[in-house]
Specification:
By secondary structure, this protein is α+β, with helices and mostly antiparallel strands. Helices cover 29% and strands 33% of the residues. The chain is globular.
């Protein structure tokens, strides 16, 4: 599974609707509105690299009101939550 974090800068007039539009795209596992330099973060999970380009360049970047994106492709995943579940003995 390929995981990417897509940082999104959006125009003001789509701030209230863009999160839902992002979440509706196949391959977008989660979408967040955030503070700071970027307006939204989308977590994209796809089975093959070819699909990553289709989701990010083909679907996300083509949404109305998106000014720019930056995509970070994950090499490895580290999750304290997953480790806790693995070693949970039901205490």
């Amino acid at each position: 599974m390929i995981t990417a974090i897509v940082l999104i800068e959006a125009d003001r007039d789509v701030m209230t609707t863009l999160g839902g539009e992002l979440a509706d795209i196949a391959g977008v596992a989660e979408a967040y509105s955030v503070t700071g330099e970027w307006d939204f973060v989308a977590l994209v999970r796809v089975p093959r690299h070819e699909l990553l380009a289709e989701v990010v360049s083909g679907q996300i970047a083509s949404l109305s009101g998106i000014a720019r994106t930056q995509t970070l492709v994950a090499f490895e995943a580290f999750s304290k939550h997953d480790l806790e579940a693995l070693f949970d003995l039901g205490n």
